[in-house]
Amino acid sequence: MSLHTTAHSLATLAAEPGHEGGHASLSPFVTGGGALFVLLLLLWITTRFNRDR
């Protein structure tokens, strides 16, 4: 898969709902909330296992 094909696929996926390739149920708030949750979970895991003993 070339860089051009990958960029086109991501741009199509990120298109606004109603346009070609857009997905109406992909809410930016759900996506952002999910990303925040994952990052906080990774931060918690990292700090949990990085304690000096």
Description:
This protein has 53 residues and is mostly helical. The protein has helices at 3-13, 28-49. The chain has one domain. The longest helix is centred in the C-terminal third of the chain and has 22 residues, at 28-49. It is elongated.
What tags apply to this protein structure?
single chain; 53 residues; mainly alpha; 2 helices; 62% helix; 0% strand; elongated; transmembrane; membrane; transmembrane helix
Helix segment count?
A: 2
Radius of gyration: 17 Å
Mean pLDDT: 78
Largest sheet: none
**Beta-strand percent range:** under 5%
The coarse silhouette is: elongated
Give the termini distance in whole angstroms.
46 Å
Whole-number count of domains: 1
Number of strands: 0
Structural class label: mainly alpha
Summarize this structure briefly:
By secondary structure, the chain is an all-alpha fold.
Secondary structure: elements and pairs:
Elements: H1 3-13, H2 28-49
